[in-house]
Amino acid sequence: MLRAEAIGALKRDTKQFGFHLMSPAQTYEKYSTDPKKGLTTKQVESQQAKFGFNELQAEAEKTLWERIAEQFEDTLVRILLAAATVSFFFAITGDGEEGITAYVEPFVILLILLLNGIVAIWQDSNADNALEALMELQAPRANVMRNGELDQIEARTLVPGDLVKLESGDCVPADIRLTKIDSVALQVGQASLTGESVNVSKTIKTLGESAVMLQDQKNIVFSSTDVKQGQAWGVVAYIGHGTAIGSVHDEVQKAKEEEEDTPLKKQLDEFGDKLAWVIGIICLIVWLMNIGNFFDPIHGSAVKGCIYYLKIAIALAVAAIPEGLPAVITTCLALGTRKMAQNNCIVRRLASVETLGCTSVICSDKTGTLTKNEMCAVHFATYGNSIDKPDAYDIEESSYSPESNVKGLNAQGYLANPNFKHIASNLALNCFAQIKK
Length: 437
What we know:
The protein has about 425 residues and is of the alpha+beta class. The protein is built from 15 helices and eleven strands.
């Protein structure tokens, strides 16, 4: 669900964003775009220097030290670290009677904290790498007319004023003011931006000032949406953070900075605070109860007696701390993320698994709001030797990728059943795919 600020980003200022108020001719004139040849190389270089690249700035990548520091933000982990530090101090300054056994307890505590941090950092790094790989796979390309030649370029190199050709199946690379529609109609899916599950029909007509909301701006196609039907030409109006999706991205980044802790983290911090107070009070009481024994001759002096009973209080505190709790929690969450990863779900933070586990009801008005609004064939059947028993097959890929395989079907099986040829012919004829060199 979008926050109020993100929803507000879908509303445009007509003075600042006025391309829907312009006619196609005025749009060409705005950036001195030739309606037949597009921009020249010199114009592109000038616009590139002025506006930069057509991309959204990713958040700064965390360093290893920042990731490590995040693991010590929990109160319980800090208590364990403090207990281990004090135990090491007394082990070093002890009288040597216990020998190496005095170092066992603090070493075990630090080992648990180390393993706990390694698991969390490993999961965070894997999620970041997976997200970067997805970003590279989804990097769109655009058909652009420059210097009178139509060419396919990386969408990030688009500049305001570029003349772009849009076709069925294209992902819109920027906010584009439509200037010419070559088909009977142009329909665009805007579910990724506005949540509209029904395709939106676009036009090149000039709109009035009442068209403030994105849904009303029918003569503009927006970045990250996809062309469902038709062909059209348009001029790039906004790129990068100037696009509608860029405004939503900025609001989401602001919301992320104000992100609240998960219920599990709140409960652990609350438990840690209470545990620290209880342990501290008990240790103080135990130490105060033995004040009279400080002067026992067996200790040699009152100072050594004070230190001796302080060690007992510290040992009691360390024994009361559940050293294995952080490790158990991290292990359980890591197992949850692994199970979700097996179902192609990337979890960036371990605590997100706990949040999802607490969810009992998800309210959504449209399926397109939660999904990519893409329908792909994952299973099909064809008649073989018997009409009563069709042969069923599964398709490995479940995306718009042209590379795929049919499980259980080889070249011999394809040639043996003529129905496969009919299916392949129908699929080839009923599409707008083109082979581009």
